[in-house]
Amino acid sequence: MTAPIEPGSEGIPDERPQRRREYSGSASTLGVAALIALTVGAAIWFLEFRGDSGGAQGERGFGVIQLAQALNPTGEPPAAREGRAAPDFRLKSLRGDPVVLSALRGKYTLVNFWASWCGPCRGEAPDLEALATQHAARITVLGVNQQETASDARSFAEQFSISYPLALDTTGEVSEAYRVGRGLPVSFLVSPEGVVVKTFLGRLTAADIEKLVAEYLS
Amino acid sequence: MQNQSHPRAGQGFEPWRLVWALFCNVKFALVLVGSAVGAGLIGTVLPQVPAPMRQNAAARSAWIELRRGDFGVLTGPMDRFELFDVFHSPWFNGLWLVIIAAVTVSTVSRFMPTWRSVQRPQKRVGPAYFERAHHRASFHHEGGGDVVKALLGRRRYHVEDVSTGDETAMLFAERYAWSQYGTFLSHLALLMLLIGGLLTFFIGFDKTLIIAESTPAAPVFGTPGTGQIFIKMNDAYRGIDGDANIIDYHSIIEVRRGDEVKTCKATVNDPCRAFGYKVHQAAFFDDLARLRVTGPDGAVLFDDVLDFESRTTTVPRLAVRAPDGRVLFEGDLPQMATDTGTSPSRDDDVALSFLPLTVTDGREITYSLAWRLVEKRLRVVLSGPDIGDTVLGEGGTTATQGGLSFEFTGASSVPAMRINDMPGAAPGESVVVQMPRRGDGTPYLFASGLDQGGAVGNLALAAGEPRRTTAGYSYLFGGRVEASGVSVKRDPGDTFIWLAVGMAVVGLAITFYVPRRRLWVRIEGTHTSFAGVAERTTRFGRELRFMGAELGASDALLPGDLNDD
Q1: From A70, B3, B460, B503, which residue has the greatest number of CB atoms within 10 Å?
Q2: Per-domain residue ranges for chain A?
Q3: A63-217 fold
Q4: Is residue A40 within 8 Å of residue B104, measured between CB atoms?
Q5: What are the pLDDT digits (tens) for A17-26?
Q6: A5, A9, A23, A151: best mutation site toward chain B, by most B Cβ within 10 Å?
């Protein structure tokens, strides 16, 4: 039986060097580990997320805009919440001309967020059209399309013979400001002074609209 | 396993060195892995908060309250330790970060010793090593160093003469020195696997959407934003061969982000790649119908795709022929009414339908058919003024007195659904819509429960032909619509995982199957000593003795070396 061999002894080789770990200082051991982590992170970014900077590009001057202090009757920052001034926005209409929410003041505005893929939006469109045409003197229905193309929105308008203005939120910025997720439709009733007075989550039924008319427009 | 400090490492208290030592400590590694396994078991055995409830405090709280029935007073503490949401808890994520850090540091720390061993091996060893090495041999032969060199060369050793000039010849020989990187590669694979798994877990995306043809593009993400992606189904396709076997599924889709659009084909195995996501074909549906309803004033009341969602009803498929062979009716016979029978469980319900036919002399005779499933077979009874009640056997033909022949060609499963708020429904009625097929396979819609001027009526709708009820509502069947289920995926970890699997296979194969050898030879006159290193074999010494025998040494072999084992 021979005595075990100690590596590092005079003339004795290390028989399992690949099993050995070596600390050569914080920079060269832990630093290299950190460098590897950074390199891997950079590789992940390069391979997977490099192209993520694309997507819908907003046009300068469109999207959510600053509401002038004089136009804010609540004295509090605008928010998509009942009792607060409705966040102002400028969006392009289907014809390409700008639609500004604050410019619609003087009568009630029903800001309706919709998309053509949304079934309930299709269900409520005829009722909204009836509201817009029958009570045009007292309310404006403004449809805000969430991130669809103008042609999709136009097809929808033609399909349901919509005459009320439709605006295109191409970047989703206005939808985000109004905290509208994918749970469309969502509608906000804005008073003639620009204050959110009622929020409707989901499809507006004929009964909801009758109630709205009785409560605010009669 | 051994840890060592490089001589340059400083003296005294070195916190980073302690961290390094901890990360390279095998016991610590076992504790980490054991903790991860334990946490995984807890997360598997204990009920976990469903994903949709995680972000909703009220829903989560309600769900936790339900768990009190099972866990009683332990529910609160278990919730505080996030045992009901293990895989999303900070401690679980922290544990994996520590594991990754430890594996990274440990792997990095292996590299330099391995590299040095391959590139700058110790080529000379002291005389004691030839006496004490695990694998060694000693024998006498006359050949000298050149013969030994030649032998090692034949055995694919790289041989180097490291003699110092005295009478003792020293050789250093190596075979497959590079295979020492195998262990390093295996550890690197483990690191890659961990990174890949975490990437998949944290930033992977997987969602299935069902998108029908002719419908607007569907959004992929739950929230709007500049990165939102829309998918439009241009063509959901199912290929069928002459024997009705399905031979292909694919979808031609349009993927849009912002103004950028990519049109491509997605199959189950070959996804459409767009904007960093893969879109796979996942399912196919053909039980959808486009329907447009306009009111008496012409306003569009409904214009959408009806999704039957695999709901069906079983109806008989009939062929009725006149005596001269003309086909008077062929196809699925839609159900028009139900006789609910007397059983409260409604297991004696009988489906009813009516079939008005114009016979040869111009008279119109309405036949009625009733059917129900009996022991999984459709039992159909035909009634008419000239035939009485006749049971139709599947595949059989029954003739009436007027010479009409009724053939029940088989049972057919047709898409069917009840719609409670269909515009134009009869007061108090819900509308039942079916999509049967004609004899040539053309689908049509059959709606029952409609308001036909105060009476409950039916309407058969051929594709593209609008029909108006007496109540003034107009219905247009836009045709059958096909849809595909598509799976939208992004898995940043998959590249790492595949790479890791490859590296692990190669690393382990090298480690276990490449016969690495490192050999020192000392030749003093006729006395030759071998001492070597060979992993994963205990018989390298025997191999060395056989080499001695091959050199002609009579004293090389030991008793038992020639045994077969």
Answers
A1: B503
A2: 13-50, 63-217
A3: Glutaredoxin (3.40.30)
A4: no
A5: 666 777 877 7
A6: A23
